[in-house]
Amino acid sequence: MTYIAANDSSDGVSKVIYQSKDGTSTKTFDALDWLAQLVTHIPNKGEQMVRYYGYYSNKSRGLRKKAGTDDQVPALIDSDISPWAFRKNWARLIQKIYHVDPLLCPKCFGSMRIISFIEDEQLVKKILKHLELWDVKRKPPPCANGPPPEAFIIYDQSSAPSADDYLIDVDYPIETYL
User: Fold this and answer.
1) Is 65 a member of any domain?
2) Are 95 and 102 in contact (CB under 8 A)?
3) How far apart are CA 100 and CA 122, in angstroms?
4) Average pLDDT, the chain
5) Quick check: 17 and 1 in contact, CB under 8 A?
6) Of 31, 105, 128, 140, whose CB neighbour count within 10 A is largest?
7) Structural domain harbouring 119
8) Is 104 inside any structural domain?
9) Residue 108 pLDDT > 60, yes or no?
């Protein structure tokens, strides 16, 4: 891209000469037209211009389609990591995120190891019921628009303000709004 100032231009108008990356084509713009063309590449607030990149980019999908491998699902088939390392990997990730070692006994702080995984839903339910962890009482959700319970003020009849005190137009009673 080359900028030609208005002083250096033959017609007194600032120009921008754009040359393609491979150098095969050039295009000359007025400076303001160049800015207008350039600004079209800036996304609006909250807008995303590049939707897919990497494996999902148009180029990658086109190359896979040419090779005839577009229908194949990428999957982890073989790995250099041993099964033991995979078993330890989940514990490392939990420790990294939650700052708690899941393989450390909370009572004696000794090292624990995985004996087996229980995947049967009925068996998990039976174990949790035995440990009294299945029917854990949860707090009710807070009221959506209500004030906290301690904020209620109880008025007696003599000091309670009337609804008519808050009406702007006294010609219309409160019943017309209900």
Assistant:
1) no
2) yes
3) 29
4) 77
5) yes
6) 31
7) 84-130
8) yes
9) yes
Which tokens is 63 given?
């190359």
In this predicted model, what pLDDT tens digit does every residue of 12-55 receive, in sequence order? 888 998 888 888 899 898 888 888 888 888 888 888 777 777 77
In a domain, 146, yes or no: no
Among all chains, which residue has been given the structure tokens 């624990």? 112
166, 171, 172, 173: CA torsion to nearest 10: 60
Cβ within 8 Å of residue 37, ≥6 positions away: 29
Exposure class string for 132-162: b at 16+ Cβ within 10 A, else e: eeeeeeeeeeeeeeeeeeeeeeeeeeeeeee
Is pLDDT of 76 > 50?
Answer: no
Beta bridge partners of 16: 3, 29
Percent residues over pLDDT 70 in the chain: 66
Task: Count up the domains in the chain and report the number.
Answer: 2
DSSP tag of 2: E
> 50-59, 76-85, 130-139: which range is least confident on average?
76-85
**Mean pLDDT over residues 160-165, rounded?**
59
Does a structural domain hold residue 166? no
